[in-house]
Amino acid sequence: MYDSEPLRRVDEIMKKQNGYLYGPSLIGNSSYFPTGILGNAMVQQDQDQWYTDAYSLTSHVVEEMQLAADALRKAGGLKVPLDYRHLYINQWDNSVPNGIASGVFTNYSSDLLFSMERLSVNPYAVRRIHPTADGLPFMVADEITRELAGMSLETLHREGRLFLVDHSYQARYPVSPGRYTSACSAYFFIHPKSGDFLPLSIRTNVETNLIYSPLDEETDWLLAKAMFNMNDLFHSQIFHLANSHAVSEIVHLAALRTMSDKHPVFSLLNRLMYQAYAIRPVGEKVLFNEGGFFERSFSINSEGVKLFASEFYPTRAGPFMPNFFHKDLTTRGLLNCTYGPALKSMPFFEDGNVLHSIILKFITSFVEAYYDSDQTLALDNELQAWVREATEAALVIDFPASPLVRRSTLVDILVHVAFLNGVSHHVLNSGEPVATSGVLPLHPSALYAPVPKKKGVKDIMSFLPPVDDAVEQIALFARFNRPHLVSENGTLTHMFNSRELLGRGCIEVRRAEVEFRQAMQNFSEVVGGRTFDIDGLSQGMPFVWKGLDPGQIPYFLSV
What we know:
The longest helix has 39 residues, at 36-74. The protein is built from 18 helices and seven strands. The model has no long low-confidence stretch (mean pLDDT 97). The protein has helices at 6-19, 36-74, 111-116, 142-149, 153-158, 218-256, 264-272, 279-287, 293-297, 302-317, 325-331, 347-370, 381-391, 407-428, 432-437, 467-480, 499-502, 507-528; strands at residues 21-23, 33-35, 126-128, 162-166, 185-190, 197-203, 211-212. The strands form two sheets. Strands 3-4-5-6-7 form a five-stranded antiparallel β-sheet, with helices on both faces. Strands 1-2 form a two-stranded antiparallel sheet. It comes from Botryotinia fuckeliana (strain BcDW1) (Noble rot fungus). Keywords: Dioxygenase, Metal-binding, Oxidoreductase.
């Protein structure tokens, strides 16, 4: 990039290289975390900003905890699963002003709701089982599969209709005293007649390794779904940490060490990384510390969190290019599948694809505004140094190779970072758990009785959180929400609405940002206006999902 004072720019980068250093990872062994004189100052500044923003929300949460508990006790306490609704209805007005997703309570026992959550609120754990490359992880009685699917398990497998979510690894993770955990694996399938995506069976992978199905007694099956959801909730919360946070941070840290603050690509990355370096140190201090907020609610303790991050970062969460939006869904057989029928509805893809396309359009305009051809990339020493740093010293896994020779590759890099920060993060975290994926009764963060050794449970309530623990779980997730950002232009709609980014005199970028903002506003109206259709469904689900409303979710890694 042209600079009228090149020597001063070189000196700036040298100071940054000496001041931003690679320190040890936080919360498990994932990516490096900044240290050094400049790195420590940046981390402290991000924490100060984060605590300032979180203060008023936390105050509301503390006040509303007691109000919710009082409302439940006035309603008669917890006797049946639906009694948990008293902890939500007309509660948490300040911390969760948009309330709980429509249908989550009225259809809480629906099998379609349970299965479609795999394609919406946590779409990162499910995969299609390949007919030849994958074996069957466990067997299900033939009479069960024929009753539910009209064909054998082997036929479902052979026709590419069978899907798996496997949380068996959680059996190895340590658990807090007085809490219990399963480590569920579950089969889902595409029904040959209706085309619906439905649950087939759940295996606990602990104790006597019971296998449940929708044909079991109602209480047994409800408990099985609650146990699975507990494992899936743990996965979603820690996967987002090893995926969105750890990946975006290390890519940005490589840029901090190689690019001038004046570089337009650095300005874009810097915009996306607002408060980013607060999360892991704050997490170590108050969330994932021994006795911290996480251990107050979840069965698996803070050591289990670190084990998950250490195991999933190098294999599933951390690789850069394999986690590109379309590529990841295709790899897992959810999109463009050549060996099985297409999914009738995939809300995460439907909404995510709109957002991805809008982001892609802006980033393409941005890159083309500063690089008029592929050949000009070679002339940008800072850009090339960043890519080299990312692949070598920073150890970003599966990052595009150095040197960077195509503008389209730069677009891919920037789109992925923007998508991780502004979309992927909020599918799993931010306001989603308190509104949908962590709503009681069937989304407990812990079990309060041992996993059964045999079927025939008559009452599910002993397994679910008592009043105070239930309030603690809701409060934890309410703390993740950031409703104030709507009035502060801190939502995805305003991702690139930054004076630093737009004040460089590049009219093409300013024009692209206006178009980006308008497109996001238009889609926000679509999402915000959703309701149930005549079949009682929304996007093929018996609940109304608004988790990717760009007018509501943050543009950055908020929590």
